[in-house]
């Protein structure tokens, strides 16, 4: 365990500790950069809220999300990475060395910074929804859909993401209920055409989820018919919330170029941001794929870009 001091100097600071952050730590530590990983409020990231992961290479029998993150962390520590379970409260990328401030008052002067803070799925905000996260409530059909073969599931949302999730799940589940708040789909026209051709998808327009019901896992959802002002019950084993993601970029927005949705912009095919010495990886810069394997791959890119930057600048 690393002991805090109030001022410190580092070659490489990694902010975030999901697949992208830990992979960046593996690569930078093997390059003898002795990275300092600031793990944040949820060490391991979103995958620590997932039960079993079946689609990450190298785990033929699947793996628990917490175990996989522990494995990645352990691998980074083996090569000299240092992990600090602290929170970054402020950064200043207008100066060099770059400044990173922690919640305990520590100020870090860094020659390079890798941003790996991810993106948070938007949820409905229901107390019952929170109760069943990882036990029937998910925000990723690609990650968790396999566990709902031949069952009934619900997808909340009416945009392209919800449509994609529903189409994917329709190949696995016996029935997919789409819960759409509006009286129309916000998805693109080609996506709507695809939806309309799938017989086991049923769309509930002008409906909202009121409660997720179950004992140890999800058993049903209570849905309000907003048009007729009545409540219905749908028996489902899983509910997939597909109402978007919010990239965790607020801390950096004064310095780093973001797109309209708040995702970090990088130079094509790289992790390089508009600030020299600052690199971005994982879901923080990925509005499309949002998978552990793609996050890990971009963590590798960020580490290699950071190593090249430090070498060229004799840091």
Explain the overall architecture.
It is a single chain. With 315 residues, this protein is of the alpha/beta class. The protein folds into 2 domains: 7-120 and 245-312, FAD/NAD(P)-binding domain (3-Layer(bba) Sandwich), CATH 3.50.50.60; 123-241, 3-Layer(bba) Sandwich (FAD/NAD(P)-binding domain), CATH 3.50.50.60. The protein has 7 helices and 19 strands. The chain has helices spanning 19-30, 65-78, 127-131, 141-144, 160-170, 189-196, 292-312; strands spanning 7-15, 36-38, 52-53, 63-64, 82-84, 88-92, 98-102, 107-115, 119-121, 137-138, 152-156, 175-180, 201-205, 207-214, 218-225, 230-235, 238-241, 245-247, 278-280. The longest helix is centred in the last third of the chain and has 21 residues, at 292-312. The protein is elongated, with a radius of gyration of 21 Å.
CATH superfamily of the largest domain: FAD/NAD(P)-binding domain
The coarse overall form would be elongated
Count of runs of 4 or more consecutive helical residues: 7
- According to CATH, what is the topology of the largest domain? FAD/NAD(P)-binding domain
- The helix-strand sequence is EHEEEHEEEEEHEHEHEHEEEEEEEH
Q: How many domains is the backbone divided into?
A: 2
Helix content: 10-25%
Radius of gyration from the CA trace?
Answer: 21 Å
Distance between the termini: 26 Å
């Amino acid at each position: 365990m690393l002991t805090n001091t109030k001022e410190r100097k580092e070659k490489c600071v990694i902010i975030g500790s999901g697949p992208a952050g830990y992979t960046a730590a593996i690569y930078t530590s093997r390059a003898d950069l002795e990275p300092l990983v600031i793990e944040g409020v949820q060490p391991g990231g979103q995958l620590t809220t997932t039960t079993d992961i079946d689609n990450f290479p190298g785990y033929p029998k699947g793996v628990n999300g917490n175990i996989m993150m522990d494995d990645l962390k352990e691998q980074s520590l083996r090569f000299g990475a240092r992990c600090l379970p602290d929170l970054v409260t402020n950064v200043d990328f207008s100066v060099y060395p770059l400044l990173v401030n922690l919640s305990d008052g520590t100020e870090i002067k860094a020659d390079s910074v890798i941003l790996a803070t991810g993106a948070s799925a938007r949820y409905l905000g229901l107390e019952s929804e929170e109760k069943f996260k990882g036990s029937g409530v998910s925000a990723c059909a690609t990650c968790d859909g396999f566990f709902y073969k031949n069952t009934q599931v619900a997808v909340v949302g009416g945009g392209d993401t919800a449509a994609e999730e529903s189409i994917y799940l329709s190949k696995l589940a016996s029935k997919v209920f789409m819960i759409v708040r509006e009286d129309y789909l916000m998805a693109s026209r080609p996506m709507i055409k695809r939806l309309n051709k799938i017989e086991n998808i049923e769309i509930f327009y002008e409906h909202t989820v009121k409660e997720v019901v179950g004992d140890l896992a999800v058993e049903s959802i209570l849905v309000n018919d907003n048009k007729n002002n009545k409540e219905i019950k749908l028996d489902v084993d899983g509910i997939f919330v597909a109402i978007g993601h919010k990239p965790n970029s607020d801390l950096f927005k004064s310095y780093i170029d973001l797109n309209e949705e708040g995702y970090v912009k990088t130079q094509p095919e790289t992790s390089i941001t508009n600030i020299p010495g600052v690199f971005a990886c994982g879901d923080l810069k990925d509005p499309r794929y949002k998978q552990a394997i793609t996050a890990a791959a971009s963590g590798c890119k960020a580490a290699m870009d950071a190593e090249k930057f430090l070498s060229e600048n004799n840091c």
